[in-house]
Write a structure and sequence with these properties.
251 residues; alpha/beta; Rossmann fold; seven-stranded mixed beta sheet
């Protein structure tokens, strides 16, 4: 059988020798390579590891996960068995579906005894609200229109719907897993939380972001940036600085 590359990608060396570890969970339909710019910016203060979910890019031959908890478990097992697990507390960042998968990862990590210093959840409703959200479209054309409305993909790519169709199998699998996700309002984690979103995001509002407080044993911090659902593409440096400050203050 051909060897797979597994779950973890490290695109950049950390600038500091003993940099804290940060794991990035990508958004629905995307792969690790979509977060190269984030990896570069965050590597100034972190050892950045980007998760590569099965069913896309160099793992396209593998079946996609059917549940977010399954994704989280695969990522956790891979990290615990990797050279990057050195026993110290970690930081987790996820955007949109990646934020929900990151939350599940933190739940499982804390249950296993792995300390999580900070969960940074971006562009996502609070876990207990997922059940109330409308399901994502499942037809190809409707999905492509949905992607265009989110403005998360370059205009030149969106203009070529045939290119976009190549991402649909992974996107459909991710959306199905997200829409099936359920979490009680009383489920909490011990990690600190930094919740972020776009001030003009019509899909995830400030109210949705503040509701994350139900899932933390500590007070949460909420930050709004200019922009819509994919505000983060224009605020890479600002997010990197914010996370570095959060982790430094938590030591």
């Amino acid at each position: 059988m051909p060897k797979t590359l597994g779950w973890i990608r490290r695109f950049h060396q950390p600038n500091a020798g003993a940099a804290p570890t940060l794991l990035i969970f990508p958004h629905a339909g995307s792969g690790a390579s979509a977060y190269r710019n984030f990896s570069k910016a965050l590597s100034a203060n972190f050892e950045v590891l980007v998760l590569q979910y099965p069913g896309r890019q160099d793992r396209a031959a593998e079946p996609a996960a059917r549940e977010l908890a399954e994704l989280a478990a695969g990522a956790l097992n891979a990290f615990l068995e990797s050279e990057y697990h050195r026993g110290g507390p970690i930081t987790v960042f996820g955007h949109s579906m990646g934020a929900m998968t990151g939350f599940e990862f933190v739940r499982q990590a804390e249950a296993s005894g792995l300390a999580v210093r900070l969960l940074a959840a971006s562009g996502a409703v609070a876990p207990h609200l997922v059940a109330r959200m409308p399901a994502h479209p499942t037809e190809d054309e409707a999905l492509l229109d949905h992607l265009g409305a989110l403005n998360g993909t370059g205009a030149e790519v969106l203009a070529n719907r045939e290119i976009m169709r190549m991402t649909l199998p992974a996107l459909k699998a991710d959306y199905a897993a997200f829409d099936a996700y359920r979490c009680g309002r009383d489920v909490r984690v011990a990690a600190r939380m930094r919740i972020m979103g776009g001030a003009d995001d019509e899909h995830v509002t400030a109210h949705h972001l503040r509701e994350w407080s139900a899932h933390s044993e500590q007070e949460i911090a909420v930050t709004l940036f200019d922009g819509g659902h994919f505000y983060l593409n224009d605020h890479v440096a600002g997010i990197a600085e914010l996370l570095a400050d959060d982790v430094h203050s938590a030591r």
